[in-house]
Amino acid sequence: MKIFRNRNFVKLFFAALFSQMGTTIGNMAFAFYLLDHFSHQPSYATIAELMYSLPTILVFFIVGVVADRFDRKKVAENCDWIRAALTVLLFGALFTNSIPLIFLVLFLRSAVTKFFFPAENSLVQGILNKEQYAQAAGLNQMLFSIFMVFGVGLGAAIYKTVGIHGAVIVDFMSFIFSALFIRSCQIPTSARLPNGKVDWKDVNIKSSLGDFKDGILYIIKNRLLSVLIFGFFIFGFFNGAFAILPMFTMKYELSPENYEWYASLFAVSLGFGLLTGSGLGTLIASKFKPHQLMIFPIFLTSLLIFFLGFTDKLSIFLVIVFIIGTCLGPINIAIGGWMPKIVHPKLMGRVSGWIDPLMMFAQSATLGLIALLFPKFIQEIDYLYYGIAFVILLVSLFYAFTLPKLSEAFEKKQKLLQRKQKTQKPSNIPSM
Questions:
Q1: d(C-alpha 383, C-alpha 94), whole Å
Q2: Residue from 93, 123, 97 nearest 106 by CA
Q3: What is the rounded CA–CA span in Å between residue 12 and residue 410?
Q4: In b/e form, how buried is each residue of 282-305, taking b as 16+ CB within 10 angstroms?
Q5: pTM of this prediction?
Q6: Residues 6+ apart with CB under 8 A from 157
Q7: In the chain, how long is the greatest CA-to-CA distance?
Q8: Can you give the CATH number for the domain in which 51 is found?
Q9: How far is the C-alpha of 236 from the C-alpha of 362, rounded, in Å?
Q10: Count of beta carbons in the 10 Å neighbourhood of residue 43
């Protein structure tokens, strides 16, 4: 593939992989650690997941502004160095056995993470052409799937062999590798600073709020973009539920004595499903329109989640999880390839800055509800799966009624703009 000839893309690709690995392995290890040491308080594991999502509330209004106003390469690299330093503090905090202190460090590390992906995502848009966006999204999804297969299982294996401290060391090394990959990139200034150079003294609360307002107005005025952003909110709901529900299912229903092993198999099944779906999605992406790669897989996913709650056999549970992963692959490729075509490069950071808050808000709300309802009010985990399936079903119906029309309107607008560009000079003002 020609995209692999772009060394900057390859380096950013691996930087994002190591960055995500540094977060996921530690997260899984901490979940096992809390369930082992506080098995009668399952809410602790849920609260740990909240520490990864709640920081969004504190930084969401400046994340996109930082990605658009400052050097995107330096922002992404410095996020890795800071997280590596916080991981060292986390390693020390474990020896104190203070759960509040551990949660505080996890909270701070997660807050820094929120700045990484908008900056890194904006850099990728700046070094590729439009024809490569869907291809890049497919490759990112495929490699992430491979990492998910081995990464989560590695987190469980490390915890079972060398304990939580070993997992934290892996976290630390992953952030270091990610920072080094980003530092080695040779990215043009136009991609790093699309809005020109800005000094910290020029950034204040008023200017940040103004940039934040520009981002939300840009999203609201672009109906297709608004609908896609809403999809990320729903995926946050899905992510929140599946961050903890499979582990609870194994621990309290399907395999209490070997829940770590089967929780890892859940991740492996989902990862292989994502890998399969991403491969298929990459092959057929050029033959179908993006909305076609989204509507049916989302509908099928809702049905499969319902069956997850219905089944009481581990083998069937894992097979269904694999099929769910296969459905998610094309959805992620469609959105990942569509977004850069819709969003102007100068506003990509501010738009990306809205995605994470919406996902994390939905994820935090879901985790909060689970912590509140289970097991005090809802003793059967099955009902939680049924509720999630119903919400995803509504989303598939909503997309079926809206996306085809919006997609057609967007294509007509693009053709009209291309005709105008042949007779007029291109404008530097972002199009709404």
A1: 35
A2: 93
A3: 30
A4: beebeeeebbbbbbebbbbbbbbb
A5: 0.64
A6: 264
A7: 70
A8: 1.20.1250.20
A9: 5
A10: 17
Can you tell me which residue has the tokens 């997941």? 49
**8 Å CB contact between 135 and 1:** yes
Residue with tokens 């009668």: 40
Is 196 inside any structural domain? Answer: no
User: Would residue 429 count as lying in a domain?
Assistant: no
| Residue range 12-51, pLDDT digits in tens | 888 888 887 777 777 777 777 777 776 666 667 667 767 7
Q: Would you say 67 and 354 are in contact if contact means Cβ atoms under 8 Å apart?
A: no
Query: What is the rounded distance in angstroms from the CA atom of residue 123 to the CA atom of residue 143?
Result: 18
Range of the domain at 320: 2-188+203-422
Instruction: Find how far residue 194's CA is from the centre of its chain.
Output: 24
Provide DSSP, 189-258: HHHH-TT----GGG--HHHHHHHHHHHHHHHHH-HHHHHHHHHHHHHHHHHHHHHHHHHHHIIIII-STT
Could you read off the pLDDT of 115-162 as tens digits, one per residue? 887 788 778 767 776 666 666 766 666 666 566 556 566 677 777 777
Structure tokens at 296: 């049916």
The string of DSSP codes covering 255-316 is -STTHHHHHHHHHHHHHHHHHHHHHHHHHHTTTS-TTHHHHHHHHHHHHHHHHHHH---HHH
Q: What's the chain's length in residues?
A: 432
d(CA 235, CA 371): 19
Q: Are 121 and 351 in contact (CB under 8 A)?
A: no
User: Residue 68, Cβ neighbours under 10 Å: how many?
Assistant: 27
- Three-state DSSP at 123 gives helix
In a domain, 97, yes or no: yes
CA-to-CA separations, 353 to 3, 113, 231, 344, in angstroms, rounded = 26, 12, 15, 14
Domain annotation covers residue 428: no
Query: Structure tokens of 86?
Result: 């916080």
> Residue type at 76?
A
Say how many domains are in the chain: 1
Q: Which residue has the tokens 């689970």?
A: 370
